[in-house]
Amino acid sequence: MHCFARFVFAFACSISLPFGPALAQPATPSAMTAERAAKLPPPSSRRATTAEAMNVMDEFGRCLVRGKAKLAALAVSKIIDYEAIARAATLPEASTCLASEAPGFDSRLRFNNELLRGSVFKALYRQKHGLQQPTFSGMRADWSATTAAMTADVAERFRIFHQIAECALAADPQEVHRLITADYGSQPHQAAFTQLAPAMGNCLPEGMELKLPRPSMAGALAEVAYLQSLSTAP
């Protein structure tokens, strides 16, 4: 039994859009078409909360899944190519998904690849299952191919977060489903995280102290749950 006190959920501080480093980074002018840049509003001093920022990210993920299948597939590919994802995110067809997602904010941004991946998996899960909780296979994934191109520290972070997600899904699949199907920061979403906290604390490797950022853990849970739901499909 691992000590629940060994980890805490991390809440990102309120941030400005363009997003801060924890969520996304402003795109350079060269990353945008001249036409797209001309249509953008001037940067806003309005500060967005983590929930507001993540809801923009999640809507971007839903937009990709609805109509930009190739870009969505790239974001969730088994072998992650962050450079290819970054290039694809600057294409005009990707930028159309941002046209109306953040009124009042400056939408000149380049998404954090880790969080974009989680948002696309969340969108895929919700598109396939809606509010109906699927059956999960319980099969643990081999993340070696997914992390092969990552630096050692990034690969270790990815592996630990996803192993914790697998453990939490096995412990409380109902709350994981509730978290994925709720809007980020909503009452059901926060309640699901609260209910999952003891399970995730028990999932930590013995002796490890770890801070778990909620946006990152939400993405890892969505990825693990979606992949395990496919493993049981007829």
Structure, explained:
The protein is mostly helical. It has 10 helices and 6 strands, in the order βββαβααααβααααβα. Strands 1-6 form a two-stranded parallel ribbon. The protein has a two-stranded antiparallel sheet with strand order 2-4. Strands 3-5 form a two-stranded antiparallel sheet. The protein is globular and about 45 Å long.
Q: What's the gyration radius in Å?
A: 17 Å
Question: What is the total domain count?
Answer: 1
* Integer average pLDDT: 77
Specify the helix fraction band. Answer: 40-55%
Low-pLDDT runs of 5+ residues are 1-41, 106-110
What is the count of β-strands?
6
Structural class computed from helices and strand pairing: mainly alpha
Task: Give keywords.
234 residues; mainly alpha; two-stranded antiparallel sheet; 10 helices; disordered N terminus; two-stranded parallel sheet
How would the blueprint of this fold be written?
Layout: E1 7-10, E2 15-16, E3 24-25, H1 34-39, E4 47-48, H2 50-67, H3 69-75, H4 82-89, H5 92-95, E5 110-111, H6 113-129, H7 152-171, H8 173-181, H9 187-202, E6 210-213, H10 214-231
Parallel strand pairs: 1-6
Antiparallel strand pairs: 2-4, 3-5
Give a short summary of the structure.
Helices cover 53% and strands 7% of the residues. With 234 residues, it is mainly alpha-helical. Helix 2 packs across helix 3, helix 7 packs across helix 10 (214-231) and helix 8 packs antiparallel against helix 9.
